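User: Could you go from structure to sequence for me? I need the amino acid at each position, not a summary. Structure tokens:
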């Protein structure tokens, strides 16, 4: 294909699935080839709808359902000359004769349609666990506009007061927020001890705190076992059901949202003999072509390579689906564009908090046997002297030897979005933690700091790589041998009064030089402060005075998130001024 697509030979392109990946492919194909015939089959009644906006419509932030329709079939016909057939389910693919069988859902009529090139962008289906009571009324998942209409009509007719969200993933948390907004009593249940599996447990604690602060009851570490009708639990007030989760007492729910994750829609592909990978998605090559010639697949239905650990994975996100659709359209017309894999850059609003992540978390790095280092930071999102500074909680993971960036998690009320995008760009570019300290980022007091949190992460990580500091992580503290180790708290008296690590001695940093004699010579020293920065200075001082010293990364703030008393302990919401050296 030439750059302007002028030699594109007209083709008959059939696309299954008319939302993110499918519509992106269709629009790009039309821009390349005016003469091609492009048919889109969509099982639901709508195409090009904003599934990412569905929770916000249910909560009332998006006021009109029409706003969820990015563009109508009529407009698409006019603008792009696309042949869009809604309420039409592709029920069979014959890859040899290059024909699909289509069921018109309004008439149940089945007809065949031939293709030159077929694109599957069929998405993923919500997981409905095969547990007792799963088919009771009042249990819903959220994938498309029809689901929204069903939930809305249940809300209008049943006037629920209590809702249980099963699953603390992205959609579950968005729904929890939106139902609180509507005044419902919300309980969120998750089988793990934390919400949001892509982030590490200590970072998830900030999210738990935000959820609880807004009245969401968290039932963690309890898997959904089933659902009982009201009489089964002897309730006098009619409820839609009781939710049974692990050992927890039954939870009453007038409405249940199942947010237990998604599974690629592969039945059609499997039946057609296409290769399905071990993760359960359609297997494609670097050009996004399936194992059958002239059949391409994109979006939630495929397995993608994770470029960090070079393994197959499933990542259901809108950005990758859109970009893949565009690549496939180009490749259909002869380009040889490759898809470089998916990093899993994701972001979410949880009430006043933004939670964002990219790349691999610690659990995945360990499973992948990749040696890594971690730095935690708790800086202000902009100059701390400028009004409105809010704390960011950041975790950056990088390769232990090379310093190549491997993953990052950022939580905060302000500025988390731009930090994660810089980190995602840096990871995509193969940059190292050292490179972050050199990035020239825009600065004026209302927007950032002369040393942006990204630079600070780079400086802290470079200190680790250069051996200027040896770190202890929060989870290593309980294993320290108190006979051989002395924990030194270098914070102010006021900070210590609000809580400290048991067994630590208190020597505020400004007094440290004068009180060196109080530090036991034969012991390993672990310094800590609120965020890890002042104690880094202390560790440098002590090391140069002949001590064997390590510094607690992320300081008291990171350690305290994982303490059982954390729910009662007030972790100061004030940003911590960081003075990286
Ligand atoms: C509530 C919600 C919120 C989300 N929020 C975000 C977000 O904030 N950020 C983000 O990055 N991602 C988000 N996502 C995920 C994102 O929407 C998906 O990753 C993306 O839409 C996947 O695109 P796709 O083309 O693979 O599948 P989809 O966009 O799901 O489209 C698949 C379509 O194929 C149709 N179909 C399936 N089988 C057939 C068949 N046999 N015949 C005809 N049609 C068929 C389906 O009806 C469906 O409409 C959200 C998803 C949901 C449900």
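Assistant: Here is the amino acid at each position, in order:
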């Amino acid at each position: 294909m030439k750059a302007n697509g002028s030699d594109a030979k007209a083709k008959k392109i059939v696309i299954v699935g008319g939302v993110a990946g499918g519509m992106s492919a269709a629009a790009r194909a039309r821009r390349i080839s005016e003469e091609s015939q492009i048919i889109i089959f969509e099982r639901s009644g709508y195409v090009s709808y904003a599934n990412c906006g569905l929770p916000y419509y249910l909560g009332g932030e998006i006021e009109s359902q029409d706003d969820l329709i990015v563009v109508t079939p009529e407009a698409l016909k006019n603008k792009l000359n696309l042949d869009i057939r809604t309420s039409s389910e592709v029920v069979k693919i014959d890859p040899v004769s290059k024909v699909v069988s289509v069921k018109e859902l309004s008439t149940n009529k089945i007809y065949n349609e031939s293709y030159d090139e077929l694109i599957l962008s069929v998405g993923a289906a919500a997981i409905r666990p095969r547990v007792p009571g799963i088919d009771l009324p009042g249990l819903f998942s959220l994938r498309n506009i029809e689901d929204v209409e069903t939930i809305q009509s249940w809300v209008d007719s049943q006037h629920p007061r209590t809702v249980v969200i099963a699953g603390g993933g992205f959609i579950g948390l968005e729904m929890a927020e939106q139902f609180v907004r509507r005044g419902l009593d919300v309980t969120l249940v998750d089988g793990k001890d934390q919400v949001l599996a892509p982030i590490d447990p200590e970072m998830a604690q900030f999210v738990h705190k935000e959820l609880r602060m807004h009245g969401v009851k968290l039932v963690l570490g309890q898997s959904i076992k089933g659902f009982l009708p009201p009489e089964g639990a002897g309730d006098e007030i009619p409820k839609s059901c009781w939710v049974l989760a692990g050992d927890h007492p039954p939870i009453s729910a007038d409405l249940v949202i199942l947010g237990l994750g998604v599974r690629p829609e592969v039945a059609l592909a499997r039946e057609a003999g296409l290769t399905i990978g071990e993760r359960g998605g359609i297997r494609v090559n670097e050009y996004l072509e399936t194992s059958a010639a002239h059949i391409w697949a994109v979006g939630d239905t495929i397995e993608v390579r994770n470029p960090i650990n070079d393994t197959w994975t499933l990542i259901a996100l809108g950005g990758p689906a859109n970009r893949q659709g565009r690549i496939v359209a180009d490749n259909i017309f002869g380009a040889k564009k490759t898809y470089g894999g998916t990093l899993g850059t994701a972001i979410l609003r949880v009430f006043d908090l933004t939670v964002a992540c990219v790349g691999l978390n610690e659990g995945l790095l360990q499973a992948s046997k990749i040696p890594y280092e971690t730095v935690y930071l708790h800086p202000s999102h902009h100059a701390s002297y400028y009004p409105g500074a809010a704390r960011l909680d950041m975790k950056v993971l990088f390769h232990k030897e090379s310093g190549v960036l491997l993953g990052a998690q950022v939580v905060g009320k302000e500025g988390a979005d731009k930090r994660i995008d810089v980190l995602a760009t840096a990871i995509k570019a193969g940059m190292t933690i050292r490179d972050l300290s050199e990035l020239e980022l825009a600065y004026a007091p209302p927007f950032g700091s002369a040393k942006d949190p990204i630079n600070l992460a780079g400086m802290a990580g470079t200190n680790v790589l250069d051996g200027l500091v040896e770190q202890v992580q929060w989870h290593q503290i309980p294993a320290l041998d108190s006979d051989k180790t002395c924990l030194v708290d270098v914070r102010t008296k006021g900070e210590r009064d609000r809580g400290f690590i048991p067994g630590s001695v208190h020597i505020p940093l400004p007094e440290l030089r004068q009180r060196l004699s109080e530090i036991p010579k034969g012991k390993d020293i672990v310094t800590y402060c609120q965020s890890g920065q002042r104690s880094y200075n202390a560790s440098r001082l002590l090391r140069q005075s002949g001590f064997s010293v390590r510094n607690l990364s992320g300081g008291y703030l990171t350690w305290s998130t994982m303490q059982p008393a954390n729910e009662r302990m007030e972790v100061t919401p004030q940003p911590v001024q960081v003075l990286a050296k």
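One structural detail worth keeping in mind: The first helix runs from residue 20 to 32.
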